[in-house]
């Protein structure tokens, strides 16, 4: 770094102006397989029958464009009673219906593309696609509006089977050109000519469709339109004649679009949609005149479109067209769904190959065996069933065109089968599935084809057909894609004061991950997901001061010692002959110390012991440590090219877990699959399950369940997940390294709101930074993880006291910065912002809503006076508010606990009152309907999550605790917003440098005791003698320490040196520090003590079995610079902290008083409206003849009445908005469950047995692993470290200037040039 810059510190933020096997159980696998089979059958039936129905409806409309007043034939004679009444407006309705079916999808694409282009997301126009799609639109419109009206249904169907005309012609030409190629023998050419004959014959047969009907009498007049329609449609059906052989040719762009190698950009999409609409409308207008509709004018079209009446047949036609459009959308979704499941319809029953044949067979059956219900149904729409009208008087058994039509149909079905037939790929190949980008409503079967293409397979092209292809099974072939697929996962856990049970839980998960990682890396299957693994545990506040032999030492505390003993127990590591553990290495670091461990299957575990005297403690700063260490030092400091470092960043992931997280390897694999599938995902999180015992845990089980089922699923589907929990989330390294994320995360709080947003919910803030920078956060419901939840009432309230203000602060920050978030993040739309605003708004109104519910429920249940009940509830809640402002948190929590118990009994009254209201006002009453709907949706959601169904039982506890959590907890969180620590106000005073005041009696006793001690020492003259003895002891200690420091490099035990030649009876514990000595001598001794202490901790009774290492120079420099730049312990004066505390109190007052005032006004408004319900209510009658039960105030008896229900408008508005939120979340849940089910089907498909390798680690393997561990500690250069191992450069076209590493490099070079220019001017 000759330029004086730190590569690891290249990250920026911009200032802005104002495995043990699958986790699926056998019954789940069987159920999923059965469900998959059932869905496959249902989807195939819907696709096939839907295509037949759509084709028949389109053709029925097309054949009714021309008036057919005198139909002849068996069907017409038998069903003559079905009278069809038609007007010019009906004819206009037929034209508009066909136009709507064809052009509505294009209109949607046109608007969407225009909006994206308006945002600046354009692209290069692909002219070939525009021309071909325009030709297809012209061909289909000419056939539908002018040719089909002159034919009957049967002939329309056989004619539509001739669309593969150009595909057959192309195959014929390719075969003949191949036969005529120079250098072939006569026998070879003759054989190829014979192979070309069937294709030539099929082409001539299909070509006859352009002229065969012109040979008959003058009944068919579209002699020019017919060949134009057939040829244009056949050319426009470019997916039928473009295949993999066109890669690298003139049609390479079409090849890429067909197989989704590239997507159609917005510019091309806009041009295609516009041209298709323009061509279809133009042909329709021309057809109106060509069909002789001289009386049809614009007024008929306007009336048919805008005059809505279900009694008119033209309105019914438009509604039928809307139904067909919906059917087309459903069928395309089903095709995508089957492709996602890798379940493709059987080729012989695909709509493209079988729909014309089935439709033709049904038409023939209906015409030969007349069923008049068809005629009666069609008569309501002003339509007729048109059978053969040309050869009714023909004496023969068959029509003159019967055989040629049947051959057309057979050839069309065969070519359709050839196009959709399934291709078989090797399991090692990476397959892309795609659909036609355009929906063709007039011929929907063309838009339902799924094309598959292998990225690994080198297809023969039309240019180099006979050249040799590389053997895919060649073991010596270099597979860069395979290497690129190997990701690096850094598991990073943060620990503090976890219990042994919690530590054991997370270590068990880490050991399982270690086994899975080793199994996968040793497996030679190319298609199996593999990843490199490294585990880091960051121990916060892991050191403590102890006084031993008159010397103060810094030693690891009891929590680390407990962890070390637990680690030895779980790994089963044994001592070698020298009494050492070869897999344990201790290292001194600038932030404290480090323990490096080789786990049983080879994964390296780094335990970082943080000393809060040397580096900042708390979770956020531990996250900053591992981000800058793993991403800054390991990647940015690595001496590789920008492309390679970008590849490293893209393939590196950080798994953030807590010190008590429990998960299976499959959970990580699902997150990895998700991150690899979508490059725009910055983070993926799993389903968190709270564990523990007690009522509070039961409450949290249901709370977590509905939060994940509804809220997180809706956020995933309609936008982005707002919070990635730190207990189990996978972050992409390149996303964290981007601007305004990692660097901004190091920002210290400088304003009162920063303390709430930054430090109280660090996970939520990091998620907000990712979202605002443009990265998606997604939720994988199948990735399960468990974490211990607060079991006590006080612990739960204190946890939510931190979470609630932080969650609100980050959501408000995102809403206030919605323009930037929406501009950067495509997943965050204005509709999603509005949804989040409603959620946060109604969550703030929770206390008022629950308060009014309690009041009205108690009035209804106990028959008390409304005023009395209102005061009965105002007094306890008001008293709690007063306590929150004036007393300590322990008093607040005691009061809240007892009130929660009391209100749990009140909720029984709410249950009784609600049940009574449902019985009296019936289920159709608005409030009753909302409650029943909510309960039903919760039960339905539980049924959709069978593994979590039992959580619905805990809903009883959730219901009883609604007043506690929605009133008391909300108030406690908001009013204690200024408390920024885990514990009580006493902890706040300690953190701010203020002394906790003692009681007057306690202060007096302390003063008397101190005075007596001082007097005793003066009388006994011991002070001077103790001082002299201490000075002699300290001189001896200094000599021993100097000798120990000189010999420590030779591995001599420091503890032994310090203890030798000193009788045990002389080792007295010193009660005073060295500050009693002269200042210069004390400072010198203090430095020597600190230097010695840096090694003494390695000699403790449990750590002395570990080997010792030395931190490499490059890494030591990095840590020193990082601590100096971002992680130096914050030292503030009591005055500064008092200013912060005052600012937090002021912020608390503003927010708390505002929310209290709004809630009070809302509660008062609802109660007053209820008091004047007779005047200020809305009269509501659910249905005609509605009756409900009402109590007669005079007699006290219940009587049935037909009076309208009186609805409170304000309360009704709240219910409607809550119902809208619940409905949106339910839709999101359904879509997310569908996505999860697809993933489960894929998991079942790829299921195989795997386990721990049976090959034992040899001594060479152990030596190799330990040499790698030592290399990370002792290496003098970064190039030989872990970071540069195993990465290869990605493809050259991925070196984009928009990548993170390129942006950082440009910024660094710009800064260097600016600094150089300034130096030159000086």
Q: Overview of this structure, please?
A:
- The longest helix has 38 residues.
- Helix content is 58%, strand content 9%.
- It has 45 helices and 19 strands.
- The protein has 1322 residues and is of the alpha/beta class.
- Strand 17 and strand 18 form a beta hairpin.
- It is globular, with a radius of gyration of 39 Å.
- The strands form five sheets. An eleven-stranded mixed beta sheet has the order 11-14-12-13-10-3-4-9-8-7-15, with helices on both faces. Strands 1-2 form a two-stranded antiparallel sheet.
- Helix 1 runs antiparallel to helix 12 and helix 20 crosses helix 45.
- It comes from Caenorhabditis briggsae.
- InterPro entries: Chitin_synth, Chs-1/2_IV_N, Nucleotide-diphossugar_trans.
- It is an enzyme of class 2 (transferase).
Number of strands: 19
| Rg calculated over all Cα atoms | 39 Å
Structural class: alpha/beta
Average pLDDT rating: 80
Report low-confidence residues grouped into runs of 5 or more: 17-22, 461-483, 982-999, 1061-1077, 1248-1297
**Shape summary:** globular
The main sheet comes to:
11 strands, mixed
Protein name: chitin synthase
Enzyme class: transferase
Region (Disordered): 1059-1084
Keywords: Cell membrane, Coiled coil, Glycoprotein, Glycosyltransferase, Membrane, Transferase, Transmembrane, Transmembrane helix
